[in-house]
Design goal:
The chain is mostly beta strands and 812 residues long. Helix content is 3%, strand content 50%. It is built from 4 helices and 50 strands. It is found in: Cell outer membrane.
Amino acid sequence: MSSSFTHRCLKMLLAGTALAGSVQVSTAAPTRHKHHASTHRTASPATTPVAATAAPVAMTAPRPTPAPVMARSQPEEIAVTGRSSRTRQPGGGLMRVETAPKAVQTITHDFIAKLAPSVNLQQVIAMLPSANVTQADPFGLYTGQTNIRGFDGTEVGWLLDGAPLNDIGGGQFYANEVLESENLDNVSVQPGSVNIDTPVTSASAGMTSMTMSNPSHHAGGIMDVSFGSFDTFRQFIRLNSGDIGNSGVRAMFAFSHTKGNTWRGPGQAEKYHYDFKLVKDFRNGSHTGLTVAYNDQTNDFYLAPNLSQWRTTGYSTNYATDYVGPTAAGANYYKLHVNPFENVVAVLPTHLVITPKLTLEDSLYFWHGIGNGTGASVINASTYMGNQAVKLDLGGAKSVLALAPSNQEQFRTGNTIALHYKPDNHHDLTLGWWYEYANLYQYSPYGIVNQATGEANNIWGTTNTIQTTSGQPFRARDFLSLTQVNTIFIGDTMKYFNDRLNILVGFKEAMVTRRMYNYTPGTQYNRNLHTPEPLPQIGILWNFNKHHQIYVSGSTNFKAPSNTSLVDYYGTSGVQTQKGGASKPEYTIQEELGYRYNGELIVGSISFFNYNLTNRQQTLNYYDGNAGASYSQTVNAGGQTTRGVDIQLSTRAWHHLRPYATFEYLHSTIDNNIRVGTDLLPTAGKIAVRAPSKQAKLGLDYDLGGFWISGQVMYVGKQYASFMNDSSIPQYVTNQVGIGYRFKNVGFMKSPQIQLNMTNLTGAKFRSGVYGFTTNLKATKGVNGTMIAAGNQPTYYLNPPFSAMVTLSTGF
């Protein structure tokens, strides 16, 4: 994106402030890097709470129609102050009172507003008991890693206003590309279960749904500017149209620009982000709207060190600052390891009231992404493409240093439609259909590099690429995946005994068809895979009174096989490195027993869970020296059993304090021995990778109205980095603090605020997560007696050092 274009956008946005007025906020009851390599890369708008953006007001949310014994949250007082909102939500916004007959963990804007405004979604949910989040950087410009109850992020469905965000090929999710925190109203994690109408194919571990804040009913907006460590600079503006006459239409538009240096080694990250939301309300209770999020980002990669590199170069480990010439060492030049990516998601949700007993829900969505993760390698004029020997046009040179990007372009479009019929006060019958068609094209060209400077002619890998002497593009891989999804679902929500007993039953049949076309010479041109999955679920909840409830739930979930499992791969030596074939879907059966307490002061929950998993799909991240790029490969890790308990405890406002505490115990074991070559690794009974047995987190919010302080401390136990448990990272503790002061109105500025956010206050240095795991770090005797050679060394995330960001914000 050109700087002139950005300047024009900013001028238009700032000019719009001349029309600004005061902004009021309404509330509603709660509604229900990873490299861009290889496989990568429901809330209705009329009822979603609105982000805090304006002049201070004090409001009491209307209490929902009371039921005699239903556990409900108390009305929340809201005072809006710039980008920050003050409420009496439990735990400072880290816990919301839930009533679903399943585990749901929700964070509201009350907590989000007190984080650094640049944070991404993964950093927002890090305090939830079921989430094990590893940060790649302190300010959310890079995607880190999220594991939910020991399952990785590719096994979780991620949604924005009902639209799926997972990569359709392998299920990856990139939190830095989705939504700015000022526009994130709330985010809910459902560990272990998805709703019957949820449009996801990568959700064996549950779902995470986020809601973009609604446009305000009054014209105005919010501006903020941030300065942080590592020369990080960020600007943000949001404009609310307010109600447009008597049309029932209101809209908001937001723009942000963030730029900063990497915290270790050379390089930087820069992103431009646009959010838009429109809501149209009808008098009969119907509503529709449009949500759009567009992101344009270019990041220089961090090198994930292995244990040897960690021990020798530690926090200095990264790609090379200086170019040393067109050699293998020159391939480590940081300018040859860049991740450019653009993506847009749009969703059109509609709620149509046909009769008082009959309603229709429809959600049409579209997702497009294009970009790559780059690497570099020295290639020879005589080489292989697939299994065919070829000659390359290198301008007469015998070998050159070349850019090796892993490109992809992806289109997803789909629609979820559901009919709801309420014949009486006891039933809500649902019948619906989800259809999606996705096109994912992945190819790895070789780009021309200036041999004297080490800079690529085009980091996107779309032009200035190396050709064979016959004029054919030279590519390490080249394939197209077409995915079609049909899901039919039916459900019933029943309420008895004056709403004491709630029963939810549902069933959906998911049918996923993949067609893969491989254009690399010597590979099988076409492979198809059809995956039908029956997915029943049930939830039962009993309300003893307005303070106590218990629930039990059972659900089935699945993850479709990765598209790359169907692909044949060859190295540039002509040797086949992977043979594609039919893969089995990952399938989970989950049971849960929970108890919730909703008191006048204390709010708490405890949930016991058990998962039985078959065909566990694990993604190995590795660097292919022949192709010169980073890739991921999915392996079938067999069965897995996961058991544990999640505990949350918080208080409402008490002497301006709102503490929060959570704990998780997790026991996740591999059920079988895993095949490696012609033998089996003795992995049965071993602990699953990235599954710490203990996590504990403490949060404290102190808010006087003007001055506030919010702090969190997180403990994460030991995590294994290999199937054989012969490699691990030790337990660690990390922390973050936010401090702010809200001022009185000054001129056109409504409730201006200054805010300081700090992370890792002690400056501790440690490995914080497993980037790429391995089968076995050490040579191991197989079940059949053969010696299985050691696998690749695992690679790791490093915890970012002490970092700080100052933010000035105001409503207008």
